[in-house]
Specification:
By secondary structure, the protein is mostly helical. Helices cover about 75% and strands about 5% of the residues. The protein has 2 domains: about 110 residues, no CATH class; about 170 residues, no CATH class. This is Complex 1 LYR protein domain-containing protein.
């Protein structure tokens, strides 16, 4: 152990012994005056404040002050009224300083204007609340493949087909629902485990074949070959991966069909809105002309 570390350990043990001695003396103080009850938390607070001191001179000064406090506590516990009054004064000054600091912080908070929440922070908080609300699938939610909806309120949102590391999903709006993220994460983990198992079995198959060949050379006959179970497991995991990829491809095709149909309906609805917006000024103009004609006939009459 280095000399520096030994010195630090000695200082640590010395400070710990001093701390315990101070707390023991606090328990021996007279019950009155009542201010003496604050002596123990005062000492705990001071030790906690200065426990990270690194400077040798500051550490030495703190230990010196601690031993002086220990002598003061001892004399007060023996009935020395000067010691009691000095402790009362220290506690009173400490409490007064705390109150002044708290008052300063309150006044400072009144003067400093509250920083307005930025749009970015508001959006971040809204996204956080949305993810909490979408942690579970809504019980009345319909399948995304049930789209397109024949009628929608307002402007139709055309979904976007997104590829999440090989798994498709339709994004209607941002942010992405939390339960959808959980589903995608589960699929990714399941496929990754299968790929790891496939890789492990592919590396085990040559070793199993070597075992079979060794048994053949040595004339040692087994009821089943070493490579048999490995081949069965390999075929099983290959089938699982192929079946999963096939379902993923079918799902992507079905989702793309939904996107195309949604686009078609969105274009039709936009065209209808434009036509209706064009008719409205013409109708207003016709109504205005008819009114002017009636006014003209009235004036001539």
């Amino acid at each position: 152990m280095s000399a520096t570390r030994v010195r630090l350990t000695i200082i640590h043990l010395t400070a710990l012994a001093l701390y315990r001695a101070l707390l023991r003396q606090c328990a021996k103080l007279p019950h009155s005056p009542s201010e003496l009850k604050a002596c123990k938390p005062y000492i705990q607070n001071r030790f906690n404040r200065y426990k990270a001191l690194q400077s040798p001179s500051q550490t030495a000064n703190s230990l010196k002050a601690g031993y002086e406090a220990l002598d003061l506590l001892y004399s007060a516990s023996q009935g020395d009224q000067n010691g009691v009054q000095r402790i009362r004064k220290l506690i009173s000054e400490s409490e007064s300083a705390k109150r002044q600091k708290s008052e300063w912080h309150r006044e400072r908070a009144k003067v400093i204007p509250v920083k307005p929440v930025s749009r970015k922070e508001l959006k971040k908080e809204a996204n956080k609340r949305y993810r909490i609300l979408t942690a579970k699938r809504h019980p009345n939610a319909t399948s995304i493949l049930a789209r397109p909806r024949p009628v929608v309120n307002g402007k139709r949102r055309v979904p976007v087909l997104v590829n999440a590391r090989g798994f498709p999903f339709l994004l209607i709006k941002k942010p992405q629902p939390k339960f959808l993220s959980a589903v995608l994460d589960s699929k990714l983990k399941r496929r990754w485990k299968r790929m790891e198992r496939l890789k492990r079995l592919e590396s085990e198959l040559p070793m199993a074949r070597d075992e079979d060949e060794w048994d053949l050379l040595t004339g040692h006959k087994e009821d089943a070959k070493w490579s048999g179970p490995v081949k069965v497991s390999l075929k099983e995991v290959q089938g699982q991966i192929s079946e999963g990829d096939r379902k993923t491809k079918e799902l992507a095709q079905a989702m793309w069909k939904v996107v195309l149909e949604e686009r078609k309906l969105a274009e039709q609805e936009e065209k209808q809105r434009v036509e209706q917006a064009g008719k409205q000024p013409t109708e207003e103009k016709g109504t205005l002309s008819a009114g002017q004609h009636d006014m003209k006939q009235s004036s001539e009459g």
